[in-house]
Amino acid sequence: MAFKERVFSGVQPTGNLHLGNYLGAITKFVALQDTYDCIYCVVDLHAITVWQDPPDLKRTTREVTAAFIASGIDPKKQIIFNQSQVAEHAELAWVFNCVARLGWLNRMTQFKEKAGKDRENVSVGLYAYPNLMAADILVYRATHVPVGEDQKQHLELSRDIAQKFNVDFATSITSNGYGEVFFPLPEPIIQGPATRVMSLRDGSKKMSKSEPSDYSRINLTDDADTIAQKIRKAKTDPEALPSEEEGLKPRPEAENLVGIYAALQGTDKASVLREFGGSQFSVFKSALVDLSVAKLGPIGSEMKKLVQDPVYIDSILADGSARASVIAGETMKAVKDIVGFVRR
Ligand code: TYM
Q1: Which one of 151, 152, 207 would you pick to mutate in the ligand 1 pocket, going by the greatest count of ligand atoms within 8 A of its CB?
Q2: What tens digit of pLDDT does each residue of 95-132 get?
Q3: DSSP code for 240
């Protein structure tokens, strides 16, 4: 069955947005809006799987919204909203809690990493989180999902849930007049030179909001001096840059910086190495500082301006939520028919 093509993705409002979020996800969101109808969500229900200070949660929700707009997503053409304003996400997630198998969730590496040794003490929400993520996507019957590499396994789980729902309820889907297959199997879009941006301090660790050292990441709101300092201090090795990609393989820090440069420039690692092969890091880092400041500076300033006007931000979220609710409501009605719930 052919589904209407639609893009969905989400970003958690926890901590500072960083270069990994920007290059792995947000730049893709911007590019896809030329070809698709897109729905971009600030996933506050996901955020509370670990403790969030309530006033901070409001602030970071508005900040992520500001980042979407400042990066170039058009809130009139596309839908930008926060998850908790559309109750169907949580409603469909419950149905999916009953579709997904415990064994599937037990395989989720992100849960294992986040829960660590303290597994008995983490929230049930943190464990069930991938089911909510599947609901986020499928409540819009979205077909394409731009994400960074770290979300790949969750996307595979979303496909498994969609598939099992379609098979378990096949007879009901047909008899209720919803065609042969109800949910599309959403396709991840994980492309380009920066699908996994690494820490500036350690090329074997992902750049992340939760890493204690602020020097491990570039935040979208960092000013030019801070960006320059962080890049100058970024870990490297004593060799000059290679001329071929092959030469980056055993050098994770070099590979990371070259990937960041390529993604910011909108090119690939091979082209960057054609330009900088044989250069010392001092030369390459200066060029990277200039490029980063040129690309990120205007976004950071626009974000800072936008968050000064929470009334405007909240109006974008309210409008987006109203439009999202219409689509989600349609899906949920159908799901109720298919599952066998009596409804109004
Ligand atoms: P979150 O909030 O951790 O990250 C938001 C997006 O940024 C990407 N990302 C990275 N990409 C490259 N390098 C990095 N170091 C890096 N760090 C983060 C993430 O892959 C993500 O695309 N579970 C999701 C949010 C979510 C979602 C969804 C995504 C909830 N529901 C439905 C897609 C569809 C998350 O925690 O992303």
Answers
A1: 151
A2: 999 999 999 999 999 999 999 888 999 999 999 999 99
A3: P
3-state secondary structure of 266: coil
The answer to whether the CB of 60 is under 6 A from ligand 1 is: no
Q: How would CATH label the architecture of 6-195+310-339?
A: 3-Layer(aba) Sandwich (3.40)
Quick one: DSSP state of residue 177? Answer: T
Q: Tens digit of pLDDT for each residue in 223-260?
A: 999 999 999 999 999 999 999 999 999 999 999 999 99
* Residue 276 and residue 260 in contact, taking contact as beta carbons nearer than 8 Å: no
213: left (phi over 0), alpha (psi -120 to 50) or beta: beta
Q: Is the dihedral of CA 14, 77, 296, 148 positive or negative?
A: positive
Please tell us whether the domain made up of 214-305 is placed in CATH 2.60.40.10: no
Q: Are 74 and 33 in contact (CB under 8 A)?
A: yes
